[in-house]
Design goal:
Layout lengths: L7 H16 L5 H31 L10 E2 L12 H11 L1 E2 L5 H4 L4 H18 L7 H4 L11 H24 L4 H13 L15 H11 L7 E3 L6 H14 L24 H9 L1 E5 L2 H13 L7 E3 L13 E6 L23 H12 E12 L1 H4 L3 H12 L1 E9 L12 E8 L5 E6 L20 H9 L13 E5 H6 L6 H4 L12 H9 L1 E2 L5 E3 L2 H14 L2
Length: 551
């Protein structure tokens, strides 16, 4: 179960934080979460710096704080020929001590002064001075804008964030929960609010669907893992947590979440070397700078110190990586189109539809023997155009297509009602047969509210059935899961829709004889023509007469 389920107090404070931004004039969820993310980064800078100082003192290693010295505003940067003495004088006259840029320092200021300090110094410090720290997050801050307009809003936001962290530390101490996991859950709960933004067709893939796909693909430590359209980084994060959980020897003792999965960001076996290997194995790309920043923060909040998410269009000519990854996980944009002139020459499907181009892009990203787990609109499974057929052939003829899992249309509500499917294929080898599964329920209501229902829906059944290879003798196409040989799929023009191969079960219904039906309607008479049993018609007429007598 999500750790926040155990602490409604934290959830209440997060909701209060959203309400403060709404009433403070920032009503767009995407804009609000971006501003909150900047504040969280400011707090983490302070905490990480103090932790690094403590560790250095403990080990005796040299340490230099990022808050040492002075900070000059970008417009006051001296020319290169300024002497060291003049530079120090200039910093003291026009600059500010970096120590005053700490979260723990500016949070004590009066509201007006705090806003001025953050606007004029702290935010420019992050964008300009920290660039040399080689932080992935800072790298993508160059076009960021701090737009919290009111001193009161900044003060309230800082207070709530501090209060949330106090609760996180309390839970970690009293309940034995991991600080990193709770902190990560807090940020994910914040991200869940951007579902209503619907920006550029980008929306978060439901976390339980991500977990399902990762569980089936089964990434291993040492694998190079990528997402070519990563959004807030959900697939990369869960692949990381899945691998950490597999390394944990006490997996059996850990509590399953509300969807039946076990995930953690921390393991006793996660040495600094292993952690560095896992951190460096993840690579994400997105065409939206805001999403890049949110994705980076999402991974950092879960303990991935140097996440790799870059601003890049992986369908365009600027992307050149091929055969680089063992695992590719993605939920690419649906029903989008790209300008024909921008499409990478490596992509040969002859279409501008992004849902098809990403299939080819993902295939090209994989090493031979590498596996992809992707989500596509169900139209990809049976679309009749040449590009649709060629995309399916790519997965069947040049790969081993392992699974096609059809999901119900409500999975992506409230922002999309399109029916989707999960595809798993391995580059190279040969497809012999394909496993089909028709998911009726994902454990949540399929309306706009998406409320949790009892049980796991079909999620855990899918995992069990996929991982247990059933003999062909048990292959019953009347069920919700079965396998289909490649030859049959090819004969159906590579159609991958579940309904094409499902054997329908028709229930035989016996109707009553016409004489009996007429007797029920008109009444039953004996041979002398006398009424023995009233029919529905007589009963209705009697009721109508009784009703008439009332008026």
């Amino acid at each position: 179960m999500s750790l926040l389920q155990h602490n409604p107090n934290i959830k209440s404070k997060i909701q209060d934080l959203w309400n403060k931004f709404w009433s403070g004039g920032i009503s767009n969820p995407l804009t609000a979460i971006e501003q909150i993310t900047y504040l969280l980064f400011m707090k983490k800078l302070d905490e990480n710096d103090k932790e690094a100082q403590y560790n250095a003192e403990f080990t005796g290693d040299p340490f230099t704080s990022i808050f040492d010295g002075y900070f000059l505003l970008p417009g006051d940067k001296p020319k290169e020929n300024v002497s060291k003495e003049d530079l120090e004088r200039l910093k003291k006259e026009k600059g500010i001590e970096k120590e005053k840029l700490r979260w723990s320092e500016f949070k004590r200021l009066p509201s007006e002064e705090m806003l001025q300090r953050v606007q004029q110094y702290v935010f420019p410090f992050i964008k300009e001075d920290l660039d040399k720290e080689d932080s992935p997050f800072v790298k993508h801050m160059r076009n960021a804008v701090f737009i919290i307009p009111k001193p009161s809003l900044l003060t309230e936001a800082v207070k709530i964030i501090d209060s949330i962290y106090e609760d996180i530390e309390k839970d970690a101490s009293e309940k034995g929960q991991d600080f990193q996991d709770i902190q990560g859950d807090v940020y994910e709960y914040l991200l869940s609010e951007i579902a209503s933004a619907g920006k550029n067709g980008q929306f978060r893939t439901p976390r339980h669907i991500i977990k399902l796909l990762v569980e089936l693909v089964d990434p291993k430590p040492g694998n190079q893992i990528a997402d070519p359209a990563c959004g807030t980084g959900g697939f990369l994060l869960d692949a990381y947590q899945y691998m950490v959980t597999q390394l944990d020897g006490n997996k059996r003792n850990k509590e399953k979440d509300e969807d039946g999965f076990i995930r953690t960001s921390k393991s006793a076996k996660l040495t600094s070397e292993v952690k560095l290997t896992l951190d460096q194995s993840l690579q994400g790309y997105d065409i939206d700078q805001t999403m890049v920043r949110l994705g980076l923060m999402n991974l950092m909040m879960h303990g991935i110190n140097n996440p790799q998410i870059d601003y890049k269009d992986t369908l365009s000519k600027s992307y050149e990586e091929s055969s680089q990854y063992n695992i590719v996980l993605a939920n690419p944009p649906f029903t989008g189109n790209i300008d024909k002139g921008d499409i990478n020459e490596e992509l040969k499907l002859g279409t501008t539809k992004t849902e098809l181009l990403f299939i080819e892009r993902i295939y090209n990203m994989l090493k031979i023997g590498g596996t992809a787990g992707i989500i596509v609109p169900q139209g990809v499974l049976f679309g009749g155009g040449k590009a649709f057929t060629e995309a399916r052939k790519l997965m069947i003829e040049k790969s081993q297509l392992k699974a096609v899992i059809s999901a119900p249309s409500g999975v992506f509500k409230p922002y999309a009602g399109v029916s989707t499917a999960l595809l798993i294929f391995t580059k190279g080898g040969e497809t012999e047969k394909v496993w089909f599964y028709n998911m009726d329920s994902d454990g949540y209501s399929l309306d706009d509210k998406r409320q949790k229902e009892d049980g796991y829906g079909d999620l855990q059944d899918i995992v069990i059935k996929y991982k247990s290879a059933k003999p062909d003798s048990e292959n019953d196409r009347k069920r919700k899961q079965f396998t289909v040989p490649k030859k049959e799929i090819v004969g159906e023009d590579y159609d991958l829709s579940f309904s094409r191969y499902k054997e329908e079960v028709y229930e035989e219904i016996e109707y009553e004889k016409p004489k009996i039906i007429l007797e029920k309607l008109m009444g039953k008479y004996n041979d002398q023509g006398e009424l023995e049993e009233k029919g529905l018609e007589q009963e209705i007429n009697e009721k109508l007469r009784q009703l008439k007598d009332l008026f």
